[in-house]
Specification:
By secondary structure, the protein is an alpha/beta fold. It has helices at 7-14, 20-29, 39-49, 54-64, 77-87, 91-106, 117-126, and strands at 2-5, 32-36, 67-70, 110-113, 130-131.
Length: 140
């Protein structure tokens, strides 16, 4: 399974929380891992804020190495802003969704992995391939 991961789905792979069981199941089914490169900063911020232990940082290092990172150049910012006038997401979430849509246009097998409720609502409305905790790792 080709997966595009949001930070809300990666952090539960490292730190135990409500979404950990479905995140682990999805992770184990994954073949190719993609994310917007900013997700690295968001994940590390979450680990720092929650005072992650050494083994958590080591786990993150192993997970991070699996990812292929999508870079969004500054030239895409106006398009992200245009999209977000409709989407109405927080800024970083809009960029995550924009990166997903760009990559999924050339890789149709890609599925969005997120536990963020605003992203889930948008993906369902747009009929984007989505995996969430509510679906117990089954694609829609």
């Amino acid at each position: 399974m080709d997966c595009f991961w949001d930070t809300s789905a990666v952090v539960p792979l490292i730190l135990r929380e409500v979404h950990t069981p479905p995140a682990v199941t999805i992770y184990q089914q994954g073949v190719a891992f993609f994310a917007w490169d900013w997700m690295q900063l968001e994940t590390e911020a979450a680990l720092s804020r929650r005072q992650a232990q050494r083994q958590d940082w080591e786990t993150w290092g192993k997970i991070r190495a699996l990812f292929q990172w999508v870079h969004l150049p500054r030239t895409d910012w106006s398009e992200i802003q245009n999209c977000n006038r409709e989407w109405r997401l927080r800024a970083a979430d809009a960029a995550h969704m924009y990166a997903f849509t760009r990559l999924s246009s050339i890789r149709p097998s890609l599925r969005l992995i997120t536990f963020d409720s605003d992203q889930i609502i948008l993906a369902q409305r747009k009929r984007w391939p989505l995996i969430t905790s509510a679906q117990k790792a089954k694609p829609t």
